[in-house]
Hints:
alpha/beta; five-stranded parallel β-sheet; 589 residues; 20 helices; 39% helix; nine-stranded antiparallel β-sheet; 3 domains
Amino acid sequence: MEPSVCGEDDMVRWxxxxxxxxxxxxxxxxxxxxxxNFEVEYLKKWLGDIEIKEVxxxxxxxxxxxxxxxxxxxxxxxxxxxxANGDSGPILTKQPMTTLSLSSGTTEGxxxxxxxxxxxxxxxxxxxxxxxxxxxxxxxxxxxxxxLEFIYSSRQFKxxxxxxxxxxxxxxxxxxxxxxxxxxxKSFTCSPEEVISSGDSKQSTYCHLLLGLFxxxxxxxxxxxxxYSIVQxxxxxxxxxxxxxxxxxxxxxxxxxxxxxxxxxxxxIISPNPILASKIEACCRELEVLDWFGLIxxxxxxxxxxxxxxxxxxxxxxKKLLRYAAEVPLVSAEYGSTxxxxxxxxxxxxxxxxVTFAVVPTFxxxxxxxxxxxxxxxxxxxxxxxxDKPVPLSQVKVGQxxxxxxxxxxxxxxxxLGDVVEVAGFHNGTPKLxxxxxxxxxxxxxxxxxxEKDLQIVVERGSQLLSSSKAELIDFTSxxxxxxxxxxxxxxxxxxxxxxxxLLGECCREMDASFVDHGYxxxxxxxxxxxxxxxxxxxxxxxxILEHFLGNGSTLSQFKTPRCTSNKVLLSILNLCTIKRVYxxxxxx
Length: 589
């Protein structure tokens, strides 16, 4: 399934070839997955004793999708748990599994085990190299240059059955493929492995910043898995810059770094550089006056772009990132999940809001459930969409929304990913997807249904009013309160700057009036949903939420602020940190 190619042009040529007849490649990909794993317990349950190798590939595709049911993680969890507990039989994959990934847990409030194999690392390397090939056509970088990467590993641990478990990013950074990627793309991260795997995100961030500054002239681009990590790192920089330039001046390392391996590794790299330190100090004093606008080009003058996932729940951080980046382009990174990589950004010159992802037809076998938004019979609504039967990749239509279904070589069969995407067009024969939202992240009290994207639009409109007082929205989340009557939405904001209560009231009213879902509007008019409540939380609240997830095994590389939560621990943090409450006056007349 992997191309035996070397250079960037070869990577692009390979992708052009496999997407030319993506439908046929998908049929072959499914056959390869089933031929490899057809004897496993899960498939035998549905396919019985069908002789896979004797069946024509197209017939096999039809048989597979008619006999094997769609599955959620809950359906596969008992099988995965048996593997975690040490059952080494052919349960989901023919080859015994030695590693499990942990999802971030930010979507549903708990982490899930997901199968991880060498194939997972290989496809990660493949998509990174493919993406780099497309990026280099638009933004060429110098060979041997450095990357300022805000990347973090968490500790790996053993399950009850002795399997290695940890986040997918942790597994990848520990794999040979991570080193191969640097060699093949001729770009090297500023930070050594000891910094990446320190297990302390604050100490890692300080060292990433310090080494990024030390190698500032060599940095070709700035990256992290998620835009959130870059924004948080530069917010930390605003507080740390005086310590950082002193360390650059003297070739020392702040006492805040107390992990011996990290200290040794970093002090083995840096050396005193008074000239660079003076330059950084002057730049920072200038930037402080500008509220850090243009921080990236000022401190990293050779950076060609900033590269990260900027779609979905990362969209709210793009505005802040634009301030730091100024004229440096933002390039949206690839589309994937803990379960599988899905698509590559073949148009890196497009701004994040316009980006689409061309599906890589060799990574997994993809199906798409057509979704239609409810428009009538609101009292009968039990879900946010009406579904049609899944269709293969070759039958998707432009403009239609779908939920993605995966069959992977790592042992997931017709697995519902929960991501809603829209087909925006095609790259040769493969669809280009626009990520819409996570299907489960929905605010609902009554007959109302609001997605993550609906919430983001509403918060964007409300927070625009803050500019009149020179305040800034740092982060947000929400909760549908159904314990009080009538139930209502609560939106939590953390703000930088002082805002009068009158203005907060206007923000709250604007958000309430901006929800356009018919069920919400009708329910607000007849008061079956109460006024929207805006709660302002104290500075540092969302850092406490981050620390909660980090304490439960997530990494900063993997973290995404949940945009809607019913998690009791998170709600407890949010409510304890609430310093002001405002209710909407929309629909009061």
